[in-house]
Task: inverse folding
């Protein structure tokens, strides 16, 4: 709110014909505004990431073997227990010859639940990784 008076000051300087002083104060205010806008963008991205983490924490279930993410009525997964427990990341298991295999750590797991894969496997490899451990 203090900047309001500085902007008012800029207007007064222009009215008085002190153009260089007005430009100087205006440039300072612009630089401050740009820095605040950049900080705001970063904070918005952080809030979105925390919302994603909170959503996952609320909707992640463990079936005794693998993790599953509930999105509405859709059960997504299975996700690797070892990668989630160890590194805090969700890695979708892919169907291999000897069961479900993690493309990240190579762990082979069998889910106690029916395997319902909501997305194709190539999308899982390139999906967003949310770190839970910092
Ligand atoms: Zn893994």
Result:
């Amino acid at each position: 709110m203090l900047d309001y008076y500085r902007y008012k000051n800029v207007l007064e300087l222009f009215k008085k014909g002190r153009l260089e002083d007005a430009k100087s104060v205006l440039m300072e205010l612009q630089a401050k505004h740009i820095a605040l806008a950049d900080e705001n963008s970063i904070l918005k991205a952080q809030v979105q990431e925390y919302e994603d983490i909170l959503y996952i924490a609320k909707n992640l279930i463990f079936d005794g073997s693998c993790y599953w993410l509930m999105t509405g009525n859709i059960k997504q997964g299975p996700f690797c227990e070892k990668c989630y427990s160890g590194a805090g990341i969700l890695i979708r298991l892919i169907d291999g010859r000897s069961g479900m295999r993690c493309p990240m750590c190579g762990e082979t797991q069998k889910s106690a639940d029916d395997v319902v894969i909501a997305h194709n496997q190539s999308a899982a490899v390139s999906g967003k990784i949310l770190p839970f451990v910092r």
